[in-house]
Amino acid sequence: MIISQQAKPDSQAAAGTAETKVVVGLEEIYVSCDPNVVLSCLGLGSCVAVSAYDAVARVGGMAHVVLPDDGGKDREGSPGKYANTGIPRLIEGMKEAGALKSRIAIKIAGGARIFGNVKEGSLLDIGFRNLAAVKQAISDNGLYLKNENTGGSHGRSLLLYVSSGLTMVTSAVKGKIEI
Amino acid sequence: MAQVNAIAGIETDAWDGLIKKGMANALKGLSGMIGEEMTVKSIAIEHIPARDMPDMLGGPENVVIGVYILFDGASHGHILLAHQPEVAYALLDVLLGPTPRSHRPLTDMERSAIGEMGNITGAFFLNAIADELGVRLNPSPPTILMDMAGAILDIALAEILEEGDRVFVANMEYSIKGTPAAGNFIILPNPSLLKLMPALDRVAA
C-alpha cells in the first residue's frame, strides 16, 4: 500500500514533461495533491480501479482493488487488496491530504469478465464480485458514485489527472473515453 | 550437491529442475506442432511480488495474444502461453499459410490454431510434471484472449493474492528459428503444487 502526497518521479517527468504518471499497482492505494500527477491503474481485467476526487481541494486518489472482501480477516499489510477495506482506507488518505468526504466524487472502472466461459455471478466471476463489493463499499461509506466504465469482457486502464479531475478510460478494443 | 534455496520451506532446486523438464517438454511439443526449430532463450523461476507479474509480458497495458489454461487434480494452477500479436501472426502464417494480418479480432480458424498451440504446450508440460510426481494433473480447455497483459493475468493473480502477496512464477522465453520472434510460457502454480515436492531428489540431482 502506498499513501503519499508526494509524487514519485518517473520517465515522463524525467523527459521534461510536466506530468508525472504514477502507476497504482495491484492492491496499492495512492493519494496525491500534486497537480502534475496523473494517477493510473493499468491493464485492469477483473480488478476494479476506484478513483476519488475532491474538486475544491484538488486532491485525487486511486485504489487498485483485486478481491471483493477480506472475509473479516485482519490484513493490516494490504487493505487496498479488498474492496471492503480499500475504499475506507482510500477515503482516510484523501481526508489526510485535505479532502472533504462530502465533496469526494468516485469513479470506477474494470470488473470485466475476461474469460467468457465463466458463469455469470459464479464464484469464479471475480470481476462481477469485485464490482458488487466495490459498489457496496461505496454505499456503506456514504460516498457518491459519479460514473463508471465497468463489466464487459475487455481490459482497461483508468487515469485521473489530479490538476483537473479529468478521468479517462482506455482499452485495447474501445479506444479512449472520458468518464 | 546442489545448493538448496529455501522459499516457504520448499527445496527450490528440486522445483527448478522439475519445471525446467516440464518446460523443455512443452517446447518440444510446440516445436513439433509448428514444424519449426525452437530454442529456449531463458527460463526464469522466481518468487516475486504479484504486482510485478505483468512486466514479464511487457507491462500491464501491452497487448498480447494469450492462451490460458487452468489445471487441477493433485494440485491446481494457471498456464499462459503468450505472444506479441506480430509473433502470433507469424506463427499463424506457419500453421495456416501466409495471410495479411493486423490487430483485429482473430477469426475462428486462427483462434482454433492458437488454442491448439496452448493445448499442446500445456499438455506436454503437465504430462512431464505429472509423470515425475506420479500424480494426475488435468488441463482445462484453452481460452484464447487478445487483450492487455494485466487484464489477462488478473484472474490468476487474484486467486494467488488470496493466499499471499507474492507469486511463484516460471517464465520461459523462446525463439523460433528463422524469425526474431519470441514467446512467453508462464506457469503460476498454486502453492499446493510446490508441496508435492518431497520425492524429487532424483530431479534435482
Describe the structure in brief.
Chain A has 3 helices and 10 strands, in the order αβββββαβαββββ.
Walk me through what this model shows:
The complex is a heterodimer of chains A (179) and B (205). With 179 residues, chain A is α+β, with helices and mostly antiparallel strands. Chain A has a single domain, classed as 60s Ribosomal Protein L30, Chain: A (2-Layer Sandwich). Chain A is built from 3 helices and 10 strands, in the order H-E-E-E-E-E-H-E-H-E-E-E-E. Chain A has a 5-stranded mixed β-sheet. A 5-stranded mixed β-sheet of chain A has the order 2-5-4-6-7, covered by helices on one side. In chain A, helix 3 (126-140) links the parallel strand 6 and strand 7. Chain A starts with 10 loop residues before the first helix and ends with a strand. In chain A, 51% of the residues are buried. With 205 residues, chain B is of the alpha+beta class. Chain B has a single domain (6-204), classed as CheC-like (Chemotaxis protein chec), CATH 3.40.1550.10. Helix content of chain B is 40%, strand content 30%. In chain B, a hairpin with a 2-residue loop joins strand 1 and strand 2 (10-11). In chain B, helix 1 packs antiparallel against helix 3. In chain B, 46% of the residues are buried. The model of chain B is unreliable at 1-10 and 201-205 (pLDDT under 50). Classes of the chains: A alpha+beta (179), B alpha+beta (205).
Strand content of chain A: 25-35%
| Shape assignment of chain B | globular
**Alpha plus pi helix count of chain A:** 3
User: Could you give the order of the helices and strands of chain A?
Assistant: HEEEEEHEHEEEE
CATH topology of chain B: Chemotaxis protein chec
Low-confidence runs of at least 5 consecutive residues of chain B:
1-10, 201-205
Question: What CATH first level of chain B would be assigned?
Answer: Alpha Beta
Whole-number count of domains of chain B = 1
Q: Order of strands across the widest beta sheet of chain A?
A: 1-3-8-9-10
- Bin the helical content of chain B: 40-55%
Q: What's the total count of β strands of chain A?
A: 10
**Rg value of chain A:** 15 Å
